[in-house]
Write a structure and sequence with these properties.
The complex is a heterodimer of chains A (263) and B (299).
Chain A: H1 11-21, E1 28-31, H2 35-44, E2 52-55, E3 59-60, E4 82-83, H3 86-94, E5 100-103, E6 107-108, E7 114-115, E8 118-120, E9 125-128, H4 135-141, E10 144-148, H5 174-177, E11 185-189, E12 193-197, E13 204-209, H6 215-220, H7 240-250, H8 257-262
Parallel strand pairs in A: 1-2, 1-5, 5-10, 10-11
Antiparallel strand pairs in A: 3-4, 6-7, 8-9, 11-12, 12-13
Chain B: H1 3-8, E1 15-17, H2 28-36, E2 42-45, E3 48-49, H3 51-58, E4 62-67, E5 69-70, H4 79-86, E6 91-94, H5 97-109, E7 114-116, H6 124-127, E8 133-137, E9 144-148, E10 155-164, E11 169-170, H7 178-183, E12 187-196, H8 198-203, E13 208-210, E14 217-220, H9 238-247, H10 251-263, H11 268-275, H12 277-282
Helix pairs in contact in B: 3-4
The chains are: A alpha/beta (263), B alpha/beta (299).
Chain lengths: 263, 299
Amino acid sequence: MTVASKQEYTSLEMMATVAARQIKDHEVVFVGTGLPMLASMLALNTHAPHSVIMYESGYVGCRNRDTARIIGDIRLMYNLTQVTTMVDVLGLLQSGRVDVGFLGGAQIDKYGNMNATVIGDYNHPKVRLPGSGGAIEIATNAKRLLIIVNHEKRRFPEKVDYVTSPGWLNGGESRRKAGLPWGGPNKVITDLAVMGFDEKTKQMRLESVHPSVTVEKVKDETGFELIIPSQVPITTPPTCEELRILRDVVDPTGFFLVRRMKG
Amino acid sequence: MLMKEAAKMIADGSSICCPSFGYEKVAFAFIRELIRQRKKNLYLYGSGMNVDADMLIGAGCFRKAEIGHIGFENIGLAPCFRRSVEKGEMEVEDYSNFIMTMRFWAGMMGLPFIALRSGLGTDVQNTISKNKAREMECPFTGERLMAYTPVRPDFTIIHVQRVDTEGNAHIDGPVYDNVEKAKSAKNLIVTCEEIVTPDVVRKAPEKTMIPGFMVKAVVEVPFGAHPYACYKYYDYDWEHIEQYAEEAKDPKRFREYLDRYIYNTEDNWGYLKEVGYEKILRLRANTSLGYSTYYKRLV
């Protein structure tokens, strides 16, 4: 297993790899659009060949041959275990049968509450975003929630403008008290670092920084007080094998990897 | 029925739902006809929506929407939706996909409400009127839940692969929440790739998702979901979707898009001609895959 050097991968590939490693074999994974699609396929093709990939669109047990561009892509029909309804898959999620859920968003606060609805005031928004989609369901019901987001100060405010999906709410026991029986944000994976949450207070805590990223840089790009442990390890970068699978198997036409690199 | 007549049934001010998950099997030709007939003050119900809802919003068809999501996934934000809400031209109530799906389910089931966990701890609790969404306690366990009112649109318009002469609708591939949306409606209109004889349905009844007795009107419209896909028939037209996403960012160019593809075309045949027959043929599904091999050749 050879680890790639910094020049050999993009931050998108880094994030996809870190996210993929969070999936354990045999787990049921609820996948949202974009980077989680790459991460789940990478996991399936490396250390988690028995993971069950599930999409809100009703696809269960995906082993698609061509890269899906959107979560309802009919490419996902090919080589599939089951195609079912939204009521069915979202019902499985609500009844606690899903181990891992992925989520992105425009803003995240220190308790992992996320905003995908509006920037500014809800009734007079500065920017109108798409809205929840399945984000509420994933954040409410997945046993373990993995959040993937770009690390910028404006995306990490003290308080999100609108709580689209529930994280640890106000910290401590507030999530359970609000009636959410399980789940909660587990990791936040960004282009700079990986973060977890303090067991008691549920505040976001730095876990590792990516190669050539400083702790100072992470603090600068975070709009709230991040818990910083005395020792911060460096995130293990993608291996050459992980990069090969991402580029040659998961996204051989470069729909996600190349387009994003250009941007 | 003719598309024009079917669309005329929808009076200004009606509430409508055009199931639109996954850029697939959406009654897009019908949506274009609604725009062509310059419908006004419609009320939108939907879960996850994309270009379809954005185009209707940009054309000024809606006064209000109850939604789960309107966006273009990795292509970006929905430009007309964004403009319209930021300018205060349209009112929105934000739920989630599952909440909306289950509100349609409650409508289909004839129930007065539906209880879910979705919405607890979110701003759904602070923005939606108590007449439509409120927290409740389970009468048996005391658990905290959210109760929501059902949705029963005046019209739901779905697109399917085939309908027989008695109105029974076959769906190939994913069904999403189209059945809940169809069966909760007061009036259901089905557009399809082809109308077939009843023996086709009777040989494969497991594919019948909508029984004919629920269907108010059937419209045959080949390539009626373009620029979206129709499983086993044709793929999405990704370039057209990206073209729309780009042009819709600018109100003037959006207007030009509507002129070119909708206002200046007579019907879906005119629209397809404007898109280009070669492109349409390239999108035809490969029999072994159910989608087109066209996109592999692009890169």
